[in-house]
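From the methods appendix. Each design record in this collection lists the tokenized structure first, followed by the designed amino acid sequence. Records were kept in a plain field format so they could be parsed without special tools. The example shown here is representative of the layout used throughout.

RECORD:
FOLD TOKENS (386 positions):
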């Protein structure tokens, strides 16, 4: 892996200085999306003033191997992409710093908890969060995606941004009820002056991937919507649509024509080359064969309006899905409006109650200086204001 050795520095060592600020190592978080080292760092100002914590992606220089050169290009493009993403529900990229020995991408350390963590809280207390809470979080993420999907460059040309890695670890929820979408480091986009940014062998979790991607077909913004639907379904019910069903693999295969089976074989081979999950064949087969009846079964117990919404998101064919993130946000907010009196205050209260019920320590959201250590992939986009 690229730059896979742990940093040889103890916590507290100054990593680099930039624009009058120093960045001190707090903790090594492991490897990032492209093999770069990811660390938690403390930002200090004049007089060693604590200015909060940040996440830093670090690549050793010079980039001598082809893999390191690709990683360097990808990190630079992540920062370039961030210049087009200015949204309160998208985590920030503060900038790029290059020294003689390393390239550093400085990103926001978002306080709060990931949706994955909240799922664990739900399991711990034996009860999932309310539909209202799920709709509240989903609307914010849909708003963030609408901003990204609608991004344009300085000449007004569409950037065609697709996140490509939405999963429960990349959505964080603050104690205030505010959600942030993390990590556009795997995104595809048409950046000005560059070829389309898309590295085919670097993807997110296969279980949080749209059918068209698993089957080797073109992806677009509707692929993100499908995956957000997977996350919302799991958050509300604990169920995952792409988990192996009651049918055995050969029984699922019987649902396909001979031509479809041949095409599926090619897709499985491709997927096994791109992902590391040991059961990729079953995941691809499930993506190729699930039906609306399976979605109906997965959404049982939810209200009819929410089931209808999820059924429109979780369609195998992209053209049958909700058309855009903006439309999805409108639908989610409409459902919330119809239920009345559920906003940030209510979400914060529900989150607090859930944490107490699960027996977890509860404290107000800390500023980035006291944020808990994040998942290595919790790295993100939107440049900070000056």
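DESIGN:
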């Amino acid at each position: 892996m690229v730059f896979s050795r742990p940093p040889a520095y103890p916590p507290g060592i100054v990593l680099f200085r930039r624009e009058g600020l120093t960045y001190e190592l707090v903790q090594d978080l492991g490897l990032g999306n492209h093999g770069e080292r990811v660390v938690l760092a403390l930002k200090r100002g004049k007089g060693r003033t604590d200015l909060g914590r940040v996440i830093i992606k670090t690549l050793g220089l010079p980039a001598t191997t082809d893999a390191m050169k690709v990683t360097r290009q990808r990190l630079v493009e992540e920062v370039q992409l961030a210049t087009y993403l200015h949204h309160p529900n998208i985590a920030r990229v503060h900038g790029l710093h290059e020294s003689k020995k390393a390239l550093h991408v400085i990103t926001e350390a978002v306080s709060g908890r990931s949706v994955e963590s909240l799922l664990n809280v739900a399991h711990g207390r034996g009860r999932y969060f309310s539909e209202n809470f799920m709709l509240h979080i989903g609307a914010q993420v849909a708003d963030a995606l609408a901003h990204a999907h609608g991004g344009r460059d300085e000449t007004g040309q569409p950037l065609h941004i697709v996140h490509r890695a939405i999963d429960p670890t990349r959505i964080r929820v603050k104690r205030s009820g505010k959600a942030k979408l993390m990590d556009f480091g795997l995104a595809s986009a048409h950046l000005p002056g560059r070829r389309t940014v898309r590295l085919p062998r670097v993807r997110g979790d296969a279980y949080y991937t749209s059918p068209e991607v698993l089957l080797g077909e073109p992806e677009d913004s509707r692929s993100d919507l499908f995956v957000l639907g997977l996350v919302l379904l799991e958050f509300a019910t604990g169920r995952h649509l792409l988990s192996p069903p009651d049918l055995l693999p050969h029984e699922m295969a019987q649902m396909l024509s001979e031509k479809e089976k041949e095409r599926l074989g090619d897709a499985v081979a491709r997927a096994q080359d791109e992902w590391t999950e040991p059961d990729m064949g079953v995941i691809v087969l499930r993506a190729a064969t699930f039906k609306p009846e399976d979605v109906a079964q997965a959404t049982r117990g939810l209200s009819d309006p929410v089931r209808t919404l999820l059924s429109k998101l979780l369609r195998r064919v992209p053209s049958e899905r909700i058309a855009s993130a903006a439309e999805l946000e409108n639908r989610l907010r409409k459902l919330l409006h119809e239920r009345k009196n559920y906003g940030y205050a209510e979400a914060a209260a529900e989150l607090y109650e859930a944490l107490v019920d699960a027996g977890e320590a509860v404290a107000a959201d800390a500023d980035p200086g006291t944020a808990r250590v994040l998942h290595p992939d919790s790295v993100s986009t939107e440049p900070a204001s000056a």
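APPENDIX NOTE: The longest strand covers residues 21-31.
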